[in-house]
């Protein structure tokens, strides 16, 4: 496989596109040549902290031009970007900073205080750097310097993300330049993308969907990216109409909300050449309501943190295949297997196993999880699905017990640990419950040690875990269902 | 209860019933919680509910006005929508 360097690729595209707009962030446009210079400034500062290739840099920022500049600034010095969710609470941020062994943490001004709170509790402290529209790149505090680094399968790493595991701590997913280059080329090909395209960057860049399929893809093809820091229903619709957006990839929840947003007069979204939903299923009923209001269907795309983009439904007769996630991208393949790893017949339900040059082949530092998920060159996704005779896939459920909350995977054990730490909680179990939009709700059942209210649990959770992990269903019971030997019957809760 | 409040409650009940979260005989009281307790709406459903109210009463409510405090109880939500109808 040829070596790829996405920072060099960005520099080449920036030189080619010059004064054309790379990112429009609110009212402010950033031409390619300016964004490239900004990212070089960040690289110069980072070079003091990332002295070896493969050192990690935490990037905790909302969707913005600053995010893009920082991202390529990190890549240029051979660093690994560790995107961190801006919704993380101190305890979570602390965990990820420790685990990444970050040499530096980049945040915008309004997250400086929460970052400092976490850094104050770290032994090995990363440098704290502010990057935003006010401070192009300002070092706020020097770090104690960690030296975690290294390459994967001979290719330089670029991204360190985390995915929840069914047991234990979140698993590390480290993807390389070569893997991402492959995925970006595939996306550019299947969506037929050009520099003239105008992308809407509304899905969070902290998540693989917004990061790779919107931000990175847009920069890869030399298009213009309109970033949305905070989702606002009518502002997004107005942006699509006003800027003649052509590419809108997001999560099901955003399309559901837009489908239910009344609009005065006609809202012309005819500029959208590509609209796709990923990370959680978009139910046909929601998709039809979206079409009734705006005149187009949303395509379903299938991907994972481990593999990148797997497939997308590109059929022209979407009405008859709304549940399908389509056929694999070029060079990617999938099959469906039974519990023994044997292929099941088309039409039968089986676990989806993916093979892709864009996929990782191990979870660094976690041989048990690696052995369970990566076998014979394939990634066992834990997703259940049915293959159609034409090779397209329809997802039917999950084999693993993670909760899919709007595309963010929630580990019930992590939520249970947070709730269990409340002094009035004797026992707790957290499970997923079917949500109205095809994803899951986080539901918890508690056995209280003393009188306790849902508000007390919610307040307690808010200080410990990100908002999307906090249960939206809280129930109290006298006891939890268990076997004679005391094992929790999670599925009976 | 004002006519508008009664109409808002009717809309709220139809929204919740359509999502199988409300039995016919359940009484929606002023203090019934809409978010984490009782009904348990999430943020997507809260925005869908606002969309339904906008549709039913011809309103346009800015997202910047959608503070969680308006969704705490049936009473606070009805007052929030009522204020936009006036």
Q: What features would you describe in this structure?
A:
The complex is a heterodimer of chains A (493) and B (86). Chain A is built from 13 helices and 26 strands. Chain A is an alpha/beta fold and 493 residues long. In chain A, the strands form five sheets. In chain A, strands 1, 2, 10, 11, 12, 13, 14, 15, 16, 17, 18, 19, 20 and 21 form a 14-stranded mixed sheet that branches. Chain A has a five-stranded mixed sheet with strand order 4-3-5-6-7, with helices on both faces. In chain A, strands 24-25-26 form a three-stranded mixed sheet. Chain A starts with 5 loop residues before the first helix and ends in a 17-residue tail after the last strand. In chain B, α1 packs across α3. Chain B is globular. The two termini of chain B are 15 Å apart. Classes of the chains: A alpha/beta (493), B mainly alpha (86). At the A-B interface, α8, α9 and α13 of A face α2 of B.
Q: Using only CA atoms, what is the Rg of chain A?
A: 22 Å
Structural class of chain B: mainly alpha
Q: How many alpha or pi helices of chain B?
A: 3
Characterize the quaternary organization of these chains: heterodimer
Give the CATH class of chain B.
Mainly Alpha
Q: Overall mean pLDDT score of chain A?
A: 91
How much helix is in the residues of chain B? 40-55%
The SS-based structural class of chain A is alpha/beta
Give the % helix of chain A. Answer: 25-40%
The fold-level CATH name of chain B is Non-ribosomal Peptide Synthetase Peptidyl Carrier Protein, Chain A
Alpha-carbon distance between the two ends of chain B = 15 Å
The proportion of strand residues of chain A reads: 25-35%
Q: Given the C-alpha coordinates, what overall shape of chain A results?
A: globular
* Largest sheet, strands/sense/barrel of chain A: 14 strands, mixed
Secondary-structure element order of chain B, N to C: HHH
- Largest interface pair: A-B, 26 and 20 residues
Could you give the distance between the termini of chain A? 49 Å
Tertiary shape of chain B: globular
